[in-house]
Structure formats: C-alpha cells, structure tokens
Amino acid sequence: MSHPSPYGLHRVIEPSGALPQTARKVDNSTDIYSNEILVDVEILNITSASFARLKTEHGHDEAALAAAVMEIVGERGKYQDPVLGSGGMLVGTVEMIGTDLEGAIDLQTGTRIATMVSLTATPLKIDRVRRINMATDQVWVEGKAVLFEKGIFARLPDDLPDPISLAVMDVAGAPAMVARMVNAGDVVLVMGGGKAGLLCLHEARKRTGVTGRTIVVEYSADRCREIEELGLADDVVQADATRPVEVMEIIQRLTHGRMADFTINVVNIENSEMACVLSTNDRGTIFFYNTATSFTRAALGAESVGKPVNMLIGNGFVPGHDQITFQILRENGGLRRLFEKIYLKS
Description:
By secondary structure, this protein is of the alpha/beta class. It is about 35% helix and about 25% strand. The protein folds into 2 domains: about 10-170, Quinone Oxidoreductase, Chain A, domain 1 (Alpha-Beta Complex), CATH 3.90.180; about 175-345, Quinone Oxidoreductase, Chain A, domain 1 (Alpha-Beta Complex). The strands form 3 sheets. It has a 6-stranded antiparallel β-sheet with strand order 6-7-3-4-5-8, sandwiched between helices. A hairpin with a 4-residue loop joins strand 6 (about 125-135) and strand 7 (about 140-145).
C-alpha cells in the first residue's frame, strides 16, 4: 500500500482485505505510520460480557485472567474476545503523533485520552499486566496502542477520576442513544442495571419527564436496592431477563398493557433477546447494546411471535456521547458516588 489507510487497512495481517475490527490478526508494531497516533496504555476496560466469560472460564484467578488477556493480544495483535468478538476501550497518554496529523488535529503529546473506538479495532501490545480489578473489568497494563486517523477519542476530564471516566466511556453510546430516541411521555424499559443501565436510567428519567415512566429489570437484589435508593426508576423489577414470559407479564401489569415504547438491552448475558421483544409494544423500538446479543435470535424470535418492533444494533459511537455521559455524573451526585465506590476501590 503506497499510502497508509485512514481506516488502518495497512495494519491488517489476516484475512487480506478485512478492516481492522473484523480482522483475525493485525500488526501491533509500535513503529507508527505518518497518519497514526501512538498511545502509552495505562488501563484496559474490557467489555462486561467478555470479562464475565473470562471469569467463567478461569475463575477469579488473577494470574490466569492476566495470562488469558496476554494470550488474546499476543495472538491477534489486539484485544478481541475469541468467542464473543467484543473488546472494550483504554486510557492512556499520547506518546507520538504521526507527521501527517501534526497540526491537522487538535491533540498534543502528553494529553491523556480515552479511546472511543473498540479494542477490537485497536492494535495493542502489552508488555505486562500490572493488576486486575475483578469487580470493574479493568486491567492495568504496561503497553502501547495505535489509534488510526479515523479513530475517535475523548480527552479525560479534569473533574472525574480516570477509572470512572474509562468505565463510562466504554458504554457512552447507550445513554447517548437514550438521549436521541426517548421523548417526553414515553415508557422506557432498561434491561440490566449495570453501569450502562444506571446511566441510561438517569437519561431516560430526564427525557421522559413527569408524564413518562422508567422501568428497570435487574437480576441482582443488591443492585435493585441501590437503584431504588438513587431514585433512578419508577419501577425496579428483580427478575431474570432470560425468562421472557415472566418478564413480559410483569411489564404488562406495570404498564396496564401499554408495554414499553423504548427498550434498551444492556445486560451482559445471552438469551435476553425475547424478554425485550415481548415487553415492547408493536410500534416500539428495541436498542440491543448487549454484545452477547444474537441478532438471529432477536429477528427470528420477533417474527415467531408476530412482533413488528423496530430493532437497533448497538453502536458505540453517537456524536457527543462523551459529553452527554460525563454530564450525567455531574448532574447526579448519588450516581457519581456509587461509581466512585465501585471504581475507586484499590
């Protein structure tokens, strides 16, 4: 290739012609091309679904988990879960900017950033895993990453701790889509009360207003209690998202048969598609942000029960999603304190 591609095609090793995100292996050399940015990596925030799978396979053995992460990156030149295909995001410091980009982008060496393109599309080399926070899916490393010309990033805000910024950036597309799609008076169903679910609940309450309704379905009793204490939802339902009929009957009762106008799936397990389909009204929309989603199950399942719902595929990028998500933590002191409790543990 005579000129390096803005999309990173020159980094693809196999298969030929693939984009970096879909490639099985990419070149993770730290000798950057003229249109690339080299980042000194500090923290990886692996997707919840991928980290849950790793813990199922390796238990809570930190050494085994570190070895698994190193193995994936060593084989692929990037972090991409070999089963689920998901990745995550990273925090680091800009170490070098390619000559073609100097002056062309508003970025300087020494700037601390969170990448907003998936680790599945980011060449990554890890020298050492320093430690792992089992509760937050965050991995502290020594390593380097390469950001392409078309890669997106966010400067870390001065008023939020880095682990929290990274955690919320990993799911920023979810609350931003709520901000885009939800209207006053809507019934919004959030399936899953993890970090993405918490952020979506805040944004949904703001967008639906006093005439709308927010409902969350969460498996953990402890998280349900935290959501109630924070006042993030009108209805907090402790239920199993893999039992669709049971969930549907609860939503039907709570909404007096109206069902949800907008449903967002942010659980981190498989087989939650039909609970969303059955709980959404025929004119409603489902946003599948869960990376464990089977779109075959969702599409054929909706067809099998005669539900003409609209379905959106989770896109991690929505213009302005970083600022929308940072603003949620500035607006909601209780939610910020919960995130600090979770993500600032040593």
